[in-house]
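Before the break, one more example. Copy the sequence into your notebook; we will annotate it together after we see the structure.
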Amino acid sequence: MLYRNYIYHYKIQTPRYIPLEKIPKMVQTMTIKVEDGDFYNHHGIIPAAIKNAWKLNQQFGEPVYGGSTITMQTARTIFLVPEKSYLRKYLEAIIALEMELILGKKRILELYFNYAEWGKGIFGIETASRFYFNSSIRSLATDQAIRLVTLLSSPIRYGPYNFQRNGILRSRYNYLVKRFGQ
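Here is what the structure looks like once it is written out:
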């Protein structure tokens, strides 16, 4: 994470670690649903998803899609640099398999929520919640929580109120509102 401070000159917000049991179950469920629907059923990687991403990337001529699970995303965020490459994808997969063997699903999910990037220099869901909404994740309204979860697929380019310009993020937000909104 700190490499971003030097490479991209991001100001890193003060991290606020939060135990998994203090993150609302609805937020956990929303995140798993849109980021890795099979989270509890795989061992860190989904080879078919990686293969499909590789095929799509061949069509585009550059790495665009990754096919990463929550475990792979956590491995990348904690241990690797953000540069997209096939070598990094390979390392993600190896580290993810090791994480699954050593840590277990709950710990991986807790690390994911605390180390995922939610904006430039904003790491962790509690930090993001306080940065964007000036409130703890436990106190957010449903729509605010949905907006945070929506950001996960493109946190650098978009914020909780300007992602409507992106079709993928807009459809993700609409799906979450339909499924979890009031």
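Residues 86-102 form the longest helix (17 residues). The mean pLDDT is 88. Try to locate both features in your own notes.
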